[in-house]
Design brief:
This protein is α+β, with helices and mostly antiparallel strands. The chain has 13 helices and 21 strands. The longest helix has 31 residues, at 346-376. The protein is globular and about 65 Å long. Bound molecules: flavin-adenine dinucleotide (FAD). One of its GO terms (biological process) is 'de novo' NAD+ biosynthetic process from L-tryptophan.
Length: 393
């Protein structure tokens, strides 16, 4: 550890961030801003060179938690004013194809923003290039960790070599199936639970219209609530829509012929067929595979003053509240506030993060599970029709 150049008495930490997804990339920026040395290790190739990440949600809803965190690294304005597509409410598709709106906030017109995962992740990584104190290592998979010593071993997946590194601080931002967290399972008093729900998701797509425009009004999160299951759509910058079908796995399994699938869509999502296109619907449905949804709770998030879990590694939640990335971004913001408060003294920062963060993330996790019922079913109940009346005023 070296002292910082700027005359500050605080130590310049040597930090390794494991995982260069959304949260790890943002955390690298926060740490770099504080003047620490940051090495970011990512299992996959550089997302800036990958046109599409298969099997992951293509776009996400950015809310105020995430915006606040982006603000402090100077990226909120660009994302909100120049890039993201605002969604000011839900647009509900009834069985007969008619629609109505439920504003998120009719008075202030607040909204959430549809942003592309690849774009946002690339932007965060690109921004890190402007800091000399950040190094990025792609194709590096964490395979072994000695957390108390702060030492990690990575496999370079493109050459099959292994490399070992040590750090003052290890940030585990390696997602829901975190290897850093796996190493923490052996720690005494480390609580961990994971819950897979019986529903999975499959992504479909509504393309842009023949003039390159949106086929549906873009400033809404569109929902086809059908009681036990639902479909949603978020707008993309190229005027297409990412459509996500959430349904019990058993229902996915039963739709095993083209005829059954088309009959199912005719019965439950008839207005979406012409929007998606019959051929594309069949291609995308049978070309993909439903993915599982897991909720993970654990605590504490730290090991001594050496290791901290953030993002999905600490608290993967089901996506129905649109808060996974947002809560992960908020982790970075909160950690920065604690670093400021304790002058980067990790022996104070990490325990306080652990002690104060878990209640909020557990609550978000529970709310996210509840919101599936809200979105797929309760949203159609009469209370919400009152909101429709207000919306139509
Ligand atoms: P990840 O995005 O999973 O990134 C982890 C990174 O670590 C990956 O790049 C991975 O390659 C890398 N990694 C993994 N293992 C290793 C290893 N051993 N060594 C090195 N690197 C490793 N959230 C919202 O806020 N709003 C939404 O609207 C929203 N919609 C969603 C829709 C769906 C269908 C799903 C599934 C999720 C949604 N989420 C949403 C949640 C959001 O995707 C996650 O919360 C977010 O991606 C978490 O970011 P992360 O960086 O913590 O983890």
């Amino acid at each position: 550890m070296a002292n910082l150049q700027n005359g500050s008495s605080k130590k310049r930490l040597d930090v390794v961030v494991v995982g260069g997804g959304l949260v790890g990339s943002l955390e690298a920026l926060y740490l770099a801003k504080r003047g620490h040395r940051v090495r970011l290790y990512e299992f996959r190739e550089d997302i800036r060179k990958t046109p599409e990440v298969r099997g992951r949600s293509i776009n996400l809803a950015l809310s105020i938690r995430g915006r606040t965190a982006l603000r402090d690294v100077g990226l909120e304005k660009h994302i909100v004013e120049s890039y993201g597509i605002p969604m000011y409410g839900r647009r509900i598709h009834r069985l007969d194809g008619s629609t109505y709106n439920i504003p998120y906030d009719a008075n202030t017109k607040q909204g959430i923003y549809s942003v592309g995962r690849t774009y946002l992740n690339s932007l965060l990584l690109q921004e890190s290039e402007s800091y000399d104190n950040v190094e990025r290592f792609f194709h590096h998979k964490l395979i072994e960790a000695n957390l108390h010593k702060g030492s990690l071993t990575f496999l370079k997946t493109n050459t099959n070599e292994t490399v070992s590194v040590t750090a003052d601080l290890i940030i585990g931002a390696d997602g829901a199936y975190s290897s850093v967290r796996k190493a923490m399972l052996k720690e005494p008093l480390f609580d961990f639970s994971q819950k897979y729900i019986e529903h999975g998701y499959l992504e479909l797509c509504i393309p842009a219209d023949e003039n390159g425009g949106f086929q549906m009004p873009p400033n809404f999160l569109h929902i086809w609530p059908r009681g036990e299951f639902m479909m949603i759509a978020l707008p993309n910058q190229d005027c297409s829509w990412t459509v996500t079908l959430f349904m019990p796995f058993i229902k996915f399994k039963n739709l095993d012929t083209e005829e059954k699938l088309l009959d199912f869509f005719e019965a439950y999502f008839p207005d979406s067929i012409s929007l998606i296109g019959r051929k594309k619907l069949l291609e995308d449905f049978f070309g993909g595979k439903p993915s599982p949804l897991v909720a993970i709770k654990c605590r504490p998030y730290n090991v001594d003053n050496k290791v901290l879990l953030i993002g999905d590694a600490a608290h993967a939640v089901v996506p129905f509240y649109g808060q996974g990335m947002n809560a992960g971004f908020e982790d970075c913001w909160l950690l920065d506030k604690l670093m400021q408060k304790h002058n980067d003294d990790l022996s104070k920062v990490l325990p306080e993060f652990s002690d104060t963060r878990w209640e909020d993330t557990f609550a978000i996790s529970d709310l996210a599970l509840y919101n599936y019922v809200e979105m797929r079913d309760l949203v159609t109940r009469p209370t919400y029709l009152i909101r429709k009346a207000l919306d139509d005023l």
